[in-house]
Amino acid sequence: MAKRITVVISQSQSKNPAKRNLEEEIVAGLLGERGVDVTVIPHLYDLAPEGSGMLCLQGITGDMIVGSWLFPRAARWILDRNQVHGREGVSLLKSPGESEEDEEELAAAQAADDDKLRVIDQRPAPNRAIYCLDLRTHAKAEPYLEEIRRIAREATTDVVGLTDWIGGAPKPEQMERYLNPAGNGNGNGNGAGQPAGPIKAAEGEGQTAHIVEEEPARRWYPVIDFSRCTNCMECIDFCLFGVYGLDKAETILVEQPDNCRKGCPACSRVCPENAIIFPQHKTPTIAGSNEAAGSLKIDLSKLFGAPDPGAPGEAG
Description:
two-stranded antiparallel ribbon, 10 helices, Rossmann fold, seven-stranded mixed sheet
């Protein structure tokens, strides 16, 4: 059975015609693609935890490509905080302002800090990949369509190789469960869960997109990058609004996201690992760019109430 991949397009918060047109062109270009399912959701950062958009994402069990108007790092960890886990898929598209030099600098900084235990090191490795694309990178749809096709080919190739790992003579039903782990009645049998909530969908494989009907309010809350976080507790000690808490394993988490003071990124500025992201902030380092940890300069006046010109976020 051929492996399918789900492409999720997260819409811009604004009604900017150019952004809407780009989203529509990407969706239209994917509808005829074999092995690709397309879902359209409202802005990823604003989705309510129990809303139809997030429930839809949680129902997708196979590899996934997410296009959003955010840095890929921010999008990945928004998904993670909502129990949509996956290992980081590598995209060849760069976000605005990012370069190969930035990645090399980040890799060097991470290598120098290899002795530090990160929260992600204590987690089991996810069994699927999530690729995050920044829709701010190009004004035309074709570069995104080319990258999505490349990723889809890569994902399909991986499935063919996996069958070589099976030893012995598996029964047909065992092979089916191996190649189609989502076929348990809760999904479409191809790794993509049935969308939840009021979604428009028409019949015909590869010919329509699932559109999630949700109107979330704009939100402002921190997102933790657990590949950088060392669980040092600086954020919970610093925050005055009760945003942070601990889980049963005493790992830091954003417990009350909507307690966060709108426009306040102060905890991101005090984090020694630059592990706290505010995706809508105008400063790239705070918004989730791949700059190396420790490069963020702390302005004490901004920590204690001075207006922050970088907040809030997305330009129209």
